[in-house]
Amino acid sequence: MPKRILQGAVVSDKGDKTVIVEVERRFMHPIYKKTVKNSKRYAAHDENNVKKIGDVVKIVESRPISKTKKWLVVTE
């Protein structure tokens, strides 16, 4: 099964080797047919602490690193 890759913006870099990435998705409302924005925040592992607030990053699924971290920041 392929690993999911999501793209979002870093909203917090307070933790050591951890960044919080907010991923926004848009979809059509099934009844009202209006475009709706939905966002979700993921804790991602940033090994070298290089990502700062406002950076657009890609994150990929991984094994659980801690209780809340199950994503890795992809360096390109």
TrEMBL record:
Gene Ontology terms: biological process: translation
Cross-referenced InterPro entries: NA-bd_OB-fold (IPR012340), Ribosomal_uS17 (IPR000266), Ribosomal_uS17_bact/chlr (IPR019984), Ribosomal_uS17_CS (IPR019979)
Pfam families listed in its UniProt record: Ribosomal_S17
Keyword check for DNA damage: no
Domain of life of the organism encoding this protein: Bacteria
Sections of the chain in a coiled coil: none
MF annotations from Gene Ontology: rRNA binding; structural constituent of ribosome
Keyword terms of this UniProt record: Ribonucleoprotein, Ribosomal protein, RNA-binding, rRNA-binding
Function: One of the primary rRNA binding proteins, it binds specifically to the 5'-end of 16S ribosomal RNA.
Family stated for the protein in its record: Belongs to the universal ribosomal protein uS17 family.
Quaternary structure, from the entry: Part of the 30S ribosomal subunit.
Full protein name: Small ribosomal subunit protein uS17
Organism: Candidatus Arcanibacter lacustris
